[in-house]
Specification:
Length: 296
């Protein structure tokens, strides 16, 4: 049975569904639960379109879901192993509910298909989608070594967590500058940073910052821990451009991973295969290939 996602109370329905789908190495190819939670708590998340997210149920259990991450125009598909046959129906649903439309009435949908899902790839190509490699979404994994001591940095910097200090203005500044936005951050973005910490599984003790001598946060790593499946998930990471190439980004990521290891994690994931992460020891697992279709 297909239904639309309801009010925000349905957050847990999707969370539990994704948590239950997980297989080691993310070889199921579905979203990790923290991907859903990070997007849902993001200040750019389009709450007005939540009811367009589709949920397929069978016998009172969730069998599949078609959702966007932050806004309309993108579609991600998740299924229980015995329900992959729903994907063509889910794609058709996305074409009617998740398309982004511009002012002229033209619509666009990016459908993400795992690079090992040949059957679904055949469906999207038959329906007129074209590959957009620049929008691909790789998934990479870091295998945790034996427990190691806390990560330390030199040069007057220190590594700590938001459990030690949670200054939203400093968080706002390092994320604004770290993602290469010009100038100083506008004050009206601080509430968005507060929203980012509103997810039920957000943990200040796993959110790591490098602190300069003047007290500013100059590198930041958000870290999520799935206690059921015992893995960490890295999102987001940013370093102030004035403090790059000093090992601070590596330090905050590795300290976050180390803390997840203390909690029982055996692996950590990140949704990219950028050289920075590969240099730390991450290895690409698979890619959610991006397929795009335009609608009149």
């Amino acid at each position: 049975m297909l239904r639309h996602l309801g009010a925000l109370d349905d957050f847990d329905v999707v969370s539990d569904f994704l948590t239950g789908l997980y297989l080691p190495g993310n070889r199921d190819g579905n979203w990790l639960q923290p991907v859903w939670e990070y997007g849902y708590a993001h200040p750019w998340f389009d709450e007005s379109s939540v009811s367009r997210i589709g949920i397929w149920e069978d016998g009172g259990q969730v069998a599949g879901g078609a959702t966007y991450e932050l806004r309309l125009g993108e579609a991600f598909f998740h299924t229980q192993p015995d329900y992959e046959h729903l994907k063509p129906e889910m794609l058709e649903y996305a074409e009617h509910n998740l398309v982004a439309t511009d002012g002229g009435g033209e619509g666009t949908l990016k459908a993400f298909v795992n690079d090992f899902d040949d059957a679904f790839e055949a469906v999207v190509t038959t329906r007129g989608y074209a590959r957009r490699p620049d929008c691909d979404r790789p998934m990479s994994q870091f295998e945790l070594p034996d427990l190691s001591p806390p990560i330390r940095v030199a040069g007057g910097f220190r590594v700590q967590s938001l459990a030690d200090e949670n200054d939203l203005r400093k968080v706002h500044r390092v994320l604004h500058r770290g993602f290469n936005h010009p100038g100083e951050p506008p004050d009206d973005g601080i509430e968005g940073r507060r929203k980012m910490q509103s997810g039920p599984h957000h943990r200040k003790d796993l959110t790591i910052v490098a602190v300069a001598q003047n007290g500013d946060y100059v590198s930041y790593c958000g870290m999520w821990y799935d206690a059921v499946n015992q893995f960490g998930y890295v999102e987001p990471v940013a370093t102030d451009p004035d403090y790059r190439r000093r090992g601070l980004g590596s330090a905050v990521v590795l300290e976050g991973i180390r803390r997840c290891g203390e909690l029982g994690a055996t692996v950590a994931y990140v949704g990219t295969d950028k050289p920075f992460y590969l240099s730390l020891g991450f290895k690409r697992l698979f890619t959610q290939n991006c397929w795009v279709k335009h609608f009149s």
